[in-house]
Design brief:
This protein is of the alpha/beta class. The chain is built from ten helices and eight strands. The protein is about 40% helix and about 15% strand. The protein is globular, with a radius of gyration of 18 Å.
Length: about 300
């Protein structure tokens, strides 16, 4: 039986406590996975996948980022990291958790798994702290040109100067997420780009901790993160021998319908990464862990993890 527990640790912002959830196997732990969730969601949404890993002897642990899930003080903080240096604070929190996991699970492979915005955090992490993990899985990632990041950051900055960092800008929300339904056949709601499983989408819609409009501060910080991970100098700092797995849906607008994911993987190889694997699932949308063929995706992830054991 999988053992699930919750705990907290002090955030690097010196103000918040970061909520974490851990899924442990019944027997020995032969590997550990650090889960990094996406924007406008929380770590409890990974229950099924994490329990699957634990059932295979793999401990899974993840946290609710600043401004997300159970790490907020009140609803006004949903989708807000900090007044300044928000992206750096997120990565520092993941560093703290990583170090705790290394202490808890010495001598076993430790893998970083980031989804969507979490993949951007993970890509920042593996450049800033190369060698901390034995492998990295990037789910639902994508790429943005430097000029787009700069323009987005400038627009977010303008909104912050006018209305404050906690302002929820309809303009920024539309620019960032408004185009994701284009190309999605017969969408029922605004979040149908997430996956094709209607039950998952409706549960997301009904969750007060999901799908909120991000603050101008978060948009500024995420644009900063995207600009960091797009730099060749940042990618050059990654540990070249660390295996990396990209998983994405072929109908995921975040990943440019697969093309953006292939572009990022190509940039990794150009930066000297020696072991890069890409799995694109035709027809699948953004959350491949929750897609109709999720069991296939989970099995592919497990098979890749086995190569690190």
């Amino acid at each position: 039986m999988v053992k699930i527990s919750d705990f907290t640790f002090p955030s690097s912002d010196g103000v918040h406590s970061i909520h974490c959830r851990q899924w442990l196997p019944e027997g020995d732990v032969r590997m550990a996975v650090q889960l990094v969730h996406g924007v406008a969601e929380h770590i409890r949404r990974y229950d099924a996948f994490a329990a699957f890993l634990a059932g295979q002897g793999i401990a899974a642990t993840g946290d609710d980022h600043l401004g997300h899930g159970e790490s907020i003080h009140d609803s006004s903080e949903l989708g807000w990291f900090a007044e300044k240096d928000g992206w750096e604070l997120l990565v520092k929190d993941e560093k703290y958790l990583r170090d705790k996991l290394r202490e808890q699970f010495p001598g076993v492979p430790l893998v970083l798994f980031g989804h969507s915005m979490g993949s951007f955090i993970a890509r920042t992490y593996i450049g800033w702290y190369p060698g901390d993990h034995d492998g990295c899985i990037l789910s639902g990632t994508g790429a943005q040109p430097a000029v787009v990041c700069a323009a987005g950051k400038a627009l977010a900055g303008r909104e912050i100067r006018k209305n404050g960092s906690k302002y929820r800008s309809p303009v920024l929300q539309k620019i960032a997420f408004g185009g994701y339904l284009k190309g999605i056949e017969n969408p029922i709601g605004a979040n149908d780009w997430i996956c094709r499983d209607e039950a998952v989408i409706r549960a997301y819609d009904a969750d007060p901790l999901c799908g909120f409009t991000a603050t101008a501060g978060l948009m500024r910080d995420m644009m900063e993160g995207l600009s960091i991970i797009g730099r060749s100098g940042h990618m050059a700092m990654m540990k070249k021998s660390m295996p990396v797995l990209f998983i994405a849906g072929g109908a995921d607008p975040v990943g440019g319908w697969g093309k953006g994911v292939e572009k990022v993987a190509s940039a990794f190889r150009k930066a000297g990464m020696e072991n890069v694997t890409v799995r694109i699932y035709p027809g699948a949308r953004h959350e491949v862990l929750n897609e109709l063929e999720k069991e296939t995706v989970w099995a592919d992830v497990l098979n890749w993890l086995e190569t690190l054991a």
